[in-house]
Amino acid sequence: MPYRPKTTVEQWRILQAVVDAGGYAQAAALLNKSQSSLNHAVSKLQNMLGIELLEVKGRKAFLTQAGEVMLRRSRMVTQQVEDLERLADTIDKGWEPEIRIAVELAYPKQYLYQALQAFYPESRGSRVQIIDAVLTGTQEIIHEKRADLVITGSVPKGYLGEPLYVTRFIPVVGKQHALAQATQLELTELSQQLQIVIRDTAQKPQEQGGWLKSEQRWTVDNFYEAIEILQLGLGFCWLPDFTVQAGLADGSLQVLNFSSGSEKLAPLSLLSPYEEQLGPGSKLLRQLLLSVHQKETKDIPCKINSLSN
To answer: Key word Transcription present in the record (predicted)?
Structure first.
């Protein structure tokens, strides 16, 4: 006889919510369900499996050793079900009504806008939502599959990305800053200076990249807010080359001069969190974006030749 499951996907989703939220009461508020219904669902799940998954200590629920193993596997199952439902939705609707593209702030959007300009006549009325993301915020979007396309500075394990662009991060200050005219600086000298940093957009940000050794830091939402502060003569910041061109040209910003190289390179890639369920509109926009960069790469020799003449 064919195997008949003892448990339901909904029961596993409830277990995941209880663990992720840290307790039954918190999960009930998150799922808009009664706490008693969640208790009943998890209790029935444990009874059907014949093993204890959770133990309650005080007001918090903790996974047992067996629960940790089962929860890990259950996330894979619920994700597969979600992917199947998305695939069915894509097949049913055909051309998607909305396309979400998450973009790391370190990426120059001029290339995306060129792709969107070519996409518009073919878009069939699809709405396009552009989501700005920074650092681990971009990773969260990928793992939670909150966008159709993502331009990211780090491709997580299990995903494949198409290389797009390499951004150079340059350390700069305003022309009024005490370090503006200094030469042969050491990186250690910056530890006592005010550093301007860009806010990580993750719900649970993790400081795992960049130079963050200053005793005093001010955090802003984007590079252009950072530039406005720098131009007042306050602080220093590593900024993408394309954001500081105007400031360097008019002299309001100055590059910090170090005894050893201080530029940082950030390779950016394009990926889709759920490749198999990607709709035709998203596929077209992806191809157009890749084409923009392919054209840019072909034009580089011409630019070099024109500079050398």
So the answer is: yes
> For residue 99, what are the β-bridge partners?
128
Quick check: 153 and 267 in contact, CB under 8 A?
A: yes
| End-to-end CA, the chain | 79
Tokens of 272: 């889709």
Please give the helix or strand (H or E) that residue 61 lies within, else none.
strand 60-63
- Whether the pLDDT of residue 284 is over 80: the answer is yes
Q: Confirm if 274 and 83 have CB atoms less than 8 A apart.
A: yes
Burial label, 78 (beta-carbon count in 10 A; 0-12, 13-18, 19+) = middle
Each residue's pLDDT tens digit, 171-209: 999 999 999 988 888 888 888 899 999 999 987 776 555
Question: Does the predicted TM-score (pTM) go above 0.90?
Answer: no
Length of the chain as a residue count: 309
**In this predicted model, what pLDDT tens digit does every residue of 286-309 receive, in sequence order?**
999 999 999 876 664 443 333 333
In one-letter notation, the amino acid at residue 299 is D
Q: Which domains does the chain have, with CATH numbers?
A: 9-92 (1.10.10.10), 95-164+267-298 (3.40.190.10), 167-265 (3.40.190.290)
**What's the CA gap between 122 and 187, in Å, rounded?**
50
Classify burial at 141, counting beta carbons within 10 Å of its beta carbon; exposed 0-12, middle 13-18, buried 19 or more: buried
